[in-house]
């Protein structure tokens, strides 16, 4: 079953690379008492994710924060090393959270996982964006085609806010 607007996010623990090394971030750490934009990508360094989806959030970071968002996070089924390298290579380190859902447990708990094994990618996250307030989903937009970032784009999120 897919998570829906009004649902509380399931408990999960992510890994994130920081200047001090890897840290664990729980859903409680990230969402308690905050308004957070979360977007997910099928894979770090993949074309649509790197050239289209992520850049929009980095470019619109200040505009999102000005609309009352406390934090922004990208989630991908990759390990924290890959997510850290992606953060560094895109200039996003320290600007938004690059969260490794390394075993897809968060994606599966949300019902937003997909099997891309036929393409050699294994279990991945669907592409989506959601607004979460104090752990509760306030908006959720899932892309029908994982190769597109339209309803889950930063521009679409800004329009919702």
UniProtKB/TrEMBL annotation:
* Residue ranges crossing the lipid bilayer per the database entry: none
Q: Which UniProt keywords apply?
A: Antioxidant, Oxidoreductase, Peroxidase, Redox-active center
Enzyme Commission (EC) number: 1.11.1.27
Enzyme class comes to: oxidoreductase
Is Metal-binding set as a keyword in this record?
no
Q: Which sites are catalytic?
A: 49
* Pfam families named among the record's database cross-references: Redoxin
* One CC-aspect GO term: cytoplasm
Sorted alphabetically, the Gene Ontology BP terms of this entry are:
cell redox homeostasis; cellular response to oxidative stress; hydrogen peroxide catabolic process
**Which reaction does this enzyme catalyse, per its entry?**
a hydroperoxide + 2 glutathione = an alcohol + glutathione disulfide + H2O
Positions of the Thioredoxin domain: 3-161
**InterPro entries cross-referenced by the UniProt entry:** PRX5-like, Redoxin, Thioredoxin-like_sf, Thioredoxin_domain
**Family according to the record:** Belongs to the peroxiredoxin family. Prx5 subfamily.
Function comment: Thiol-specific peroxidase that catalyzes the reduction of hydrogen peroxide and organic hydroperoxides to water and alcohols, respectively. Plays a role in cell protection against oxidative stress by detoxifying peroxides.
Name the UniProt record assigns to this protein? Glutathione-dependent peroxiredoxin
């Amino acid at each position: 079953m897919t998570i829906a607007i009004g649902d509380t996010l399931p408990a999960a623990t992510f890994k994130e690379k920081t200047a001090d090394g890897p840290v664990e971030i729980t859903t409680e750490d990230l969402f308690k008492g905050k308004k957070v934009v979360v977007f997910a990508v099928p894979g770090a360094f993949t074309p649509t994710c790197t050239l289209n989806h992520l850049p929009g959030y980095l470019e619109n970071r200040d505009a999102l924060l000005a609309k009352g968002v406390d934090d922004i996070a990208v989630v991908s089924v990759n390990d924290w090393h890959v997510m850290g390298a992606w953060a560094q290579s895109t200039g996003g380190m320290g600007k938004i959270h690059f969260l490794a859902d390394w075993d897809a447990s968060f994606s599966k708990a949300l019902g937003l996982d997909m099997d891309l094994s036929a393409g050699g990618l294994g279990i991945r996250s669907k592409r989506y964006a959601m607004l979460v307030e104090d752990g509760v989903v306030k908006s959720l937009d899932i892309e029908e085609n994982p190769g597109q970032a339209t309803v889950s784009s930063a521009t679409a999120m800004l329009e919702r806010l």
